[in-house]
Specification:
6-stranded mixed sheet, Rossmann fold, 4-stranded parallel sheet, alpha/beta, 18% strand, 43% helix, 449 residues, elongated
């Protein structure tokens, strides 16, 4: 049984979210792929769009990536902040449109030259009609919009199709959304639900597996942590005859080993005053409560009564990670061992406060007045709750009324001041810069809590 559990954990886990019929079809297709043994699919089917949130929440923490059956479910999950892993969706243009048109013609429901289409990009529709040689003048398109809610988008598409058919402008409606198809049928509008063919589903599954593999590899990247005795407690004589220093160093070694023994990390001496801890990014995230607090500092201070300086380095290679760790421990030294610093592969620095023990207040470096004012504004305008404190550049740009580029600088400055921390990047389903979420440290605000 333990062996089976270990094998299951070693496979890339892909969550599949959407209506029952498409989720079942994706799982069936996934089982027949040549590399099916390398991944496992975790279904999150729902009967109605109002169930999507609950179903996804049950699986998202246990998967490496999520594949949605369409853009609606994907956008709703992104808007609600549920996507903590990379995600993609089954595309709705191209073969999906061809398949829907063909089924509509064969069923005698649709004249391809007089239809209404939702959820598909207008350019994709124009390209498809040019390829099949059908005029597009009588084709009406309602492009996919990022909705505030599923109900809002469903109502919008139903009104769009129903009005055109009532006015005699269309022979049938083509939709990707099951709820829209059901409501149109109920009022007598001929409707074809566009569903993706097997080839499209296979391509989408392959994309999801690649995203999951990349996410798993990122978690397995090496992290270097330097832990050094603070300058204030280092002895003046560091020779082998200084037994107090030798005992202190051994005690520090024991404390570090006790922290990392369950995380697969290693601890080796670096010099007379410190150690190197080598871990994976995933293990370090667990060690620091998701990069919320400094590792080791609270335990060493409680057990040995001394302060340590901690610098964490990440990088694409061990050399890069080590160089970043050296730079990070220098920054930690400048705070008087009151916080650890993490420097990532992109050079961005993050301050990690000491974890409080038994009601002890957190000791943190002082933040600048300007940065605290920005934090106050964001916390006040975003509202209460931990979910509201997870933001990205797009959110900050909207709240502060600045350009996205300026919003990214704002978040980077807050992180450097210890007023926010960067969470793992969220890869987009399309090419471009991954979305970088941050958690605002509302507890550091100057306003009464």
């Amino acid at each position: 049984m333990d062996r089976l559990r270990s094998e299951a954990r070693s496979k890339i886990a892909i969550g599949v979210a959407g209506p029952h019929d498409l989720v079942e079809q994706l799982i069936h297709i996934g089982a027949e792929l040549p590399d099916a043994a390398a991944f496992r699919l975790v279904g999150a089917p729902h009967a109605g769009e109002d169930e999507a949130h609950e179903k996804l929440a049950k699986i998202v923490d246990g998967v490496d990536a999520v594949l949605f059956t369409g853009p609606l479910q994907h956008d709703l999950a992104r808007r609600s902040g549920e996507l903590t892993v990379p995600a993609t969706f089954v595309p709705v243009g191209g073969a999906v449109l061809y398949s829907g048109l063909l089924r509509g013609v064969l069923a005698g429901k649709a004249d391809p030259a007089r239809v209404s289409v939702d959820s598909v990009c207008r350019a994709d529709v124009a390209e498809a009609y040019a390829e099949i040689g059908v005029p597009i003048e009588g084709v009406h398109v309602s492009e996919h919009q990022r909705p505030e809610s599923a109900r809002e988008l469903i109502d919008f598409h139903v009104d769009f199709h129903e009005k055109l058919h009532r006015d005699g402008a269309t022979s049938a409606a083509l939709t990707t959304i099951r709820a829209v198809a059901g409501r149109l049928e109920a009022v007598g509008v001929p409707v074809v639900r566009m569903t993706p063919p097997a080839h499209t589903l296979r391509l989408a599954l392959n994309t999801a597996v690649l995203l999951g593999t990349g996410n798993r590899m990122a978690e397995s990247q090496i992290a270097i942590v330097l832990v050094e005795l603070a300058a204030a407690v280092r002895p003046g004589d560091s020779g082998p005859g200084n037994y107090w220093q030798q005992e202190l160093k051994l005690s520090l070694h024991r404390a570090l080993l006790a922290e990392v023994r369950l995380l697969g990390a290693t601890v080796v001496p670096r010099d007379e005053n410190g150690y190197v801890v080598t871990a994976t990014v995933g293990a370090l995230a667990r060690m620091t409560d998701g990069f919320r607090v400094a590792p080791f500092m609270d335990r060493v201070r409680a057990e040995l009564g001394v302060a340590v300086e901690v610098g964490i380095g990440l990088g694409h290679t061990a050399r890069d990670a080590d160089a970043n760790a050296l730079a990070a421990v220098e920054r930690a030294r400048g705070t008087g061992a009151t916080a650890a610093f993490l420097i990532g592969g992109d050079g961005a620095a993050l301050s990690l406060p000491v974890r409080p023990r038994r009601g002890e207040p957190v000791s943190e470096p002082a933040a600048g007045a300007k940065a605290l004012k920005v934090l106050d504004r964001l916390v006040t305008r975003l509202g209460d709750g931990p979910e509201a404190m997870v933001v990205d550049a797009e959110t900050v740009a909207r709240v502060l009324g600045v350009a996205p580029r300026s919003a990214r600088r704002v978040l980077q400055n807050l992180a450097e001041e210890g007023l926010a921390w960067a969470l793992p990047p969220v890869r987009n389903s399309h090419a471009g810069r991954p979305r970088q979420p941050y958690r605002l440290m509302a507890e550091r605000t100057t306003k009464p809590q």
